[in-house]
Amino acid sequence: MGLFDRIKKAFTGEPETPETEKYDAGLEKSRTTFSERLNALFANFRTVDEDFFDDLEEMLIEADVGFQTAVDLTDSLREEVKLKNVKKPQEVAQVTVQKLVDLYGEAGEHEDNTLHYAEEGPTVFLFVGVNGAGKTTTVGKLAHQLKDEGKSVLLAACDTFRAGAIEQLQEWGRRDGVPVVAKEAGSDPASVVFDAVKQAKADNVDVLLVDTAGRLQNKVNLMKELDKIKRVIVRELPEAPQEVLLVLDATTGQNALSQAKQFNETTDISGIVLTKLDGTGKGGIVLAIRNELHVPVKLAGLGEGMDDLQVFDPTKFAYGLFKGLIDDPEK
Amino acid sequence: MAFEGLSERLQKAFSGLRRKGKVTESDVRDSMREIRLALLEADVNFGVVKEFVKNVREKAVGAEVLESLSPAQQIIKIVNDELTATMGEAAVPLNKSPHIPTIIMMVGLQGAGKTTTVGKLSKRLIQQEKARPLLIAADVYRPAAIDQLQVVGKSVGVPVFEMGTDTDPREIVRQGLAQAALQHNDYVIIDTAGRLQIDEKLMTELADIKEIAHPNEILLVVDSMTGQAATDVAKGFDERLDITGVVLTKLDGDTRGGAALSIRKVTGKPIKFIGQGEKMDSLDVFYPDRMANRILGMGDMLTLIDKAQQNFDEKQATEMADKIKENTFDFNDFLDQMAQVQNMGPMEDIMKMIPGMANNPALKNFKMDPKDIAHMKAIVYSMTPAEREQPDLLNPSRRRRLAAGSGRPIVEVNRMIKQFNASKKMMSQMYKGNFQGMEGLMGGGVKGRLGKMAMNSMIKKQKKNKKKRLKHAKNFKS
């Protein structure tokens, strides 16, 4: 059963779970904007012509479904409309949504959205990303959640560069009641991570969260530094890190592609944390990430609160995103 | 990489099109789509793109194509001009208060780079104006935000006013301003917490702070990697606070930075600074043209266009020089002339045909011995190409070489040059169509007119030969 059908069934079938509702609430703005826009677009055109496709393409891009996705999708629709000689936008509407959903479903076929933990010994999560993406906040929020689950957590303050970064993580550690391994500002982050891994092994900690300094992906030396941090982890714990998570600001545009690509080259990222998703108004970015980056989104930041970091469930997300679109044409 | 500059896109669209004198309707249609996609790919907001493309389309249709520019290049030029114009003025200075302190307020989303920019701006003010700023730490929400500002303040040697995280930011700003007044600080920079433009409570807080502080400058700090959301963010902050300027951060990354165009278009507010580095002195003034190049990734193409423009000028210059050359008389022409004369038959007969010619003082020494002509040719052939074109080069040492080369005495070489100079003087007059002073030479009446005609045809033929020769030489060179 395709994702499209599953979502469709969800509307007619079982009641929504509380978790789904939480997604709904967090993405309230995303969903309305996306579906409203698409519906408005279909209502706006009487005939299917070049202008219609241009507008559709723009609408998709505006909804952050990703540049390439938008262009590919529109191109394939153009072909299909020509072949089937469709004249009415409403007929295209159904196909568009179905294609969008199926694309999302197909691209995510073998996607693994769960966080992986070591079978024994400490699990290490390494957080990487550009400046201001929200790495430290994510580490802080995740530590809180893991602690609540009854896991023992250790934080490593490897951002020794940015002013106040160590203090920021220490503050999170204090709030969460979690120890933080830190050295003074300006010290070698690799040495911090070395100490942290050693301490994690000695104390038999469940999860070690490694916060790193933000770096732009085109800074070769900083990327090498990141490589070194990872090497130190692998040397001390051959199985680790279980996850290398790229923290990505949901408002980022096409540069997200470049970020994913270059961080992947250096550290082999295993998943994405999508932050500030509550502010974008366009959940489409998730589609773009799936279709163009081929890296699973594992966590999503949906608000400022400690509990607003969510384990990402793509189906629930799609459910929220396409809600207003799938039942509408049937009315 | 999905990134592809506008240049490549346009060239692809134009490949297969023949070079035309004008940008046609269909050229424009094809290229507009490419421009649209290129801008969208560079993260320019779709609404902004739409309007921009409309403007370019109007300008592009019927635009005269500069010689040596292809239609693609021409359209890139139009796009670049329009983009630069849209991007606004360069280097807009900070608004200043007529009396101290000048109050600057930084606002923006979380993680845009407000605190870092505060530090960079302080450093800039200190270096350029010997300013004594005070920083107010009004971010009470994010953990350790105050610590960050304190570290930044320390690194640039600027005091930070803070009241911990338990006081309301409004109160912090109020007391901070009081302290600034007390200490006679000439600048006050307020670092506020990052917030979403849709967060009603926090936006109200900013509006209140604005009310309290009456800032001269409200700078919206925006991450240059922002995508389509940039317009919403800029609009949200601008509507609520009426910002006075924009700072674009993280431009040292590999983002195209289309957000700059979106923000500029939506708010109409100048982009005052750009942050491009992690060091405290990496805050620069904004240059619209550089940003335009960056967004479309067509820096190379523009250099090329510039070069084409230069080449075009050069081409004109060489054409001009050719024209001058055509109207000068050098040894090549002299050879040509002699060959022509030789072709006409025995010299004496020709001279007899031209009435009055024998009386011409300039040609008095022009002895009509066929061998003479051969000798003269030998001398000219001994010259270097440069010497043939520039007879002035012939100094005594060169003349001695010519004599040796042609096997003629130096006296003969000198005489030949003298004859050449006389010939040159006459020819330059005739090139200009000026037969004045030569009326008598040709004689009057029908005979005279015939002579004139013969002379004219000879000059015409000579000019033609010369053109041919010049063209040949050029082809040979290239």
TrEMBL record, chain A:
Recorded superkingdom: Bacteria
GO CC annotation, single: plasma membrane
Enzyme class: hydrolase
Main location: membrane
GO biological process: SRP-dependent cotranslational protein targeting to membrane
Assigned EC number: 3.6.5.4
InterPro entries linked: AAA+_ATPase, P-loop_NTPase, Signal_recog_particl_SRP54_hlx, SR_rcpt_FtsY, SRP/SRP_N, SRP54_GTPase_dom, SRP54_N_sf
Acetylation among keywords: no
The entry's keywords: Cell membrane, Cytoplasm, GTP-binding, Hydrolase, Membrane, Nucleotide-binding, Receptor
Pfam families on file: SRP54 (PF00448), SRP54_N (PF02881)
UniProt keyword annotation of Amino-acid biosynthesis present: no
Domain SRP54-type proteins GTP-binding per the UniProt entry, residue ranges: 296-309
Membrane topology summary: Peripheral membrane protein
GO molecular function annotations of the record: GTP binding; GTPase activity; signal recognition particle binding
Catalysed reaction equations from the record: GTP + H2O = GDP + phosphate + H(+)
Entry-linked NCBIfam families: ftsY
Function: Involved in targeting and insertion of nascent membrane proteins into the cytoplasmic membrane. Acts as a receptor for the complex formed by the signal recognition particle (SRP) and the ribosome-nascent chain (RNC).
UniProt record similarity statement: Belongs to the GTP-binding SRP family. FtsY subfamily.
Protein name in UniProt: Signal recognition particle receptor FtsY
Species: Lacticaseibacillus manihotivorans DSM 13343 = JCM 12514
Originating gene: ftsY
TrEMBL record, chain B:
Keywords recorded for this protein, A-Z: Cytoplasm, GTP-binding, Hydrolase, Nucleotide-binding, Ribonucleoprotein, RNA-binding, Signal recognition particle
Record EC number: 3.6.5.4
CDD domains, A to Z: SRP_G (cd18539)
Keyword Cell wall biogenesis/degradation on entry: no
Main location: cytoplasm
Stretches assigned to the SRP54-type proteins GTP-binding domain: 101-297
A GO MF term: GTPase activity
Residue ranges, annotated region (Disordered): 459-478
Keyword GTP-binding: yes
GO CC list: signal recognition particle
InterPro entries: AAA+_ATPase, P-loop_NTPase, Signal_recog_part_SRP54_M_sf, Signal_recog_particl_SRP54_hlx, Signal_recog_particle_SRP54_M, SRP, SRP54, SRP54_GTPase_dom
Localization per Swiss-Prot or TrEMBL: Cytoplasm
Compositional bias annotation for Basic residues: 460-478
Signal peptide feature range: none
Signal recognition particle SRP54 helical bundle domain mapped to chain residues: 2-87
Similarity comment text for this entry: Belongs to the GTP-binding SRP family. SRP54 subfamily.
Free-text comment on this protein's domains from its UniProt entry: Composed of three domains: the N-terminal N domain, which is responsible for interactions with the ribosome, the central G domain, which binds GTP, and the C-terminal M domain, which binds the RNA and the signal sequence of the RNC.
SUBUNIT field: Part of the signal recognition particle protein translocation system, which is composed of SRP and FtsY.
PANTHER family the UniProt entry points to: SIGNAL RECOGNITION PARTICLE 54K PROTEIN SRP54 (PTHR11564), SIGNAL RECOGNITION PARTICLE SUBUNIT SRP54 (PTHR11564:SF5)
UniProt name for this protein: Signal recognition particle protein
Organism: Lacticaseibacillus manihotivorans DSM 13343 = JCM 12514
Lineage of the organism: Bacteria, Bacillati, Bacillota, Bacilli, Lactobacillales
Gene giving rise to this polypeptide: ffh
